[in-house]
Amino acid sequence: MSTARSDAAPDSTLPEGQEQPPPKPRRLVLPDGLRPYRDPLLLYGVTKLTGLIVFAWLLEWADDYQKKNPRFGGGTHWWDVLATWDGWWYLQVAEKGYDPGPLERLAPGGLFTVKQNSVAFFPLYPGLIRGVSEITGLGLYGSAILVSVLASFVAAAGIYAVVSTLAGVRAGTIAAGLWAVVPGAGVEWAVYSESVFVAIAAWCCYCVMKGRWMSAGLLAFFAGLNRPTSAALIGAVGLAALVTLARRESRREHGVAGPVYAMFAAPLGLLTYIAWVGLTSDSVTAYFTLQREGWAHYFDFGKYTLDVLGNTAVGHSNYLFAFSTPDLLSVQIVLALPFLIALMLRKKPPLVLVAYALASIVTVLGTQQMFGNTGRYLLPVFPLLLAPAAALNRLKWPSLAVFFITAAIASGWYAHYVIFELGIP
To answer: Which of 268, 263, 272, 197 is nearest to 236 (CA)?
Structure first.
């Protein structure tokens, strides 16, 4: 009885003396679930890297950053600039934790009447920095950049998922690329919490769109541990859940438990942290006092924004936090907002996107803060990319390539250099 030849054995049919050819190398194949994200993430990564390279060249060419304080836009190497301003605070929290306690009062009469304290910076991002550092052995700076870069790709994937669902795959890919070049995009690969927040916000909105209420509530909870502006996202999730429960058809489709869970889970992260700051300080409203009297940031119903617009219209700078170049760019952004909002609404996006975008815009324009940072403050408002992405979708790839190459190079200046070196990000 003959024995079948094993497939693993050498081929005995080869001529004597001829060696069996080496096996062909296996091709790296993306899992089916990740394959749709290849193009948008590639476009985002190449575009973002181009802007960063231009930023580095501008820093070296201007040769100003080495003369500045390492906390305020300076450093020994160009990449040190990415960890200045708010980045310095995040690294302090990651290294030393918080120093809670009664707010320290300063002498009256100055701009700030309370000493700045690290509790103004929410814990999720510095916590991720510390965790990555402990696991990988990287220093805190390297861990912070790693967290921001990885989170930025997760955010770009989330933006792609949302926009492709509403306007098609190609438009979703374009939207991911646009997020790399929007004003304020310079903090996406810096020691700032925006990338983590947008990653959470985009996927949270996507979960609401798909009726995944448990995931949406959990993501909104984590958003509340990352930034105070998560209130806009939390409110949007709550409103979408409430409308779902109010309609009989959607209530039958989604059930009751999921939307109810999302409504109650979403605000817990934000409320818990603000309550903790209050309990460890001398006042329940300590966080808001710190923001107002330690950073001069508070909601004033748009009075400060109107003041800046009026001053810049006549060439004056008689307003708080005046920085000519960033402010002029921010004026253009504010003037473009009504047009962008109208185009977004014309696309009839889901309620969660509309509520999140509008609440975020009202918060930004209604708050006294660094006006030159308007682009950064609006960076999380990714639903505004829906209409531009759909419009650019009509172009052929050669035209789109020219657009993205030009925008990527220019973003090294307006989205990076302007905010870090000509203003205060």
So the answer is: 263
Q: Which among 90, 85, 148 is positioned nearest to 119, based on CA atoms?
A: 90
As a whole number of angstroms, the distance between CA 213 and CA 254 comes to 9
Classify the C-alpha dihedral 424-269-139-49 as positive or negative: negative
Compute the distance between CA of residue 267 and CA of residue 216 in angstroms, rounded to an integer: 12
* Measured distance CA(211)–CA(244) in Å, rounded: 10
pLDDT of residue 7: 45
13, part of any domain? no
Q: Is residue 1 part of a domain?
A: no
Contact assessment for residue 148 and residue 195, using Cβ atoms and an 8 Å cutoff: yes
How far from 181 is each of 192, 330, 411, CA to CA, in Å? 17, 15, 6
Which residues are within 8 A (CB) of 10 and not within 5 positions of it... i.e. 6 or more apart?
20
Neighbours of 31 (CB within 10 A): 6
In angstroms, rounded to a whole number, what is the distance separating the alpha carbons of residues 275 and 264?
16
In a domain, 281, yes or no: yes
Q: Which domain does 175 fall in, by range? A: 36-100+112-421
In this structure, are residues 270 and 228 in contact, taking their beta carbons and an 8 Å threshold? yes
Provide the 3-class DSSP secondary structure of residue 352. helix
- DSSP 8-state class, residue 412: I
Q: For the chain, what is the domain count?
A: 1
Residue 34: what are its φ and ψ, rounded to 5°? -95, -15
Cα 237 to chain centroid distance, Å, stands at 18
Three-class DSSP category at 68: coil
For residue 232, is it within any domain? yes
Q: Which residues of the chain have pLDDT under 70?
A: 1-30, 32
Q: How far apart are CA 172 and CA 160, in angstroms?
A: 4
- Per the DSSP assignment, residues forming a β-bridge with 367 are 299
Token digits of residue 330:
């921010």
pLDDT of residue 371: 96
Q: What single letter denotes the amino acid at residue 49?
A: L
Rg (CA), the chain: 25
Place of tokens 């996927």: 203
Residue 282 pLDDT = 80
Q: For 367, phi and psi rounded to 5 degrees?
A: -115, 135
Burial 66-79 (b: 16+ CB within 10 A, else e): eeeeeeebbbeebb
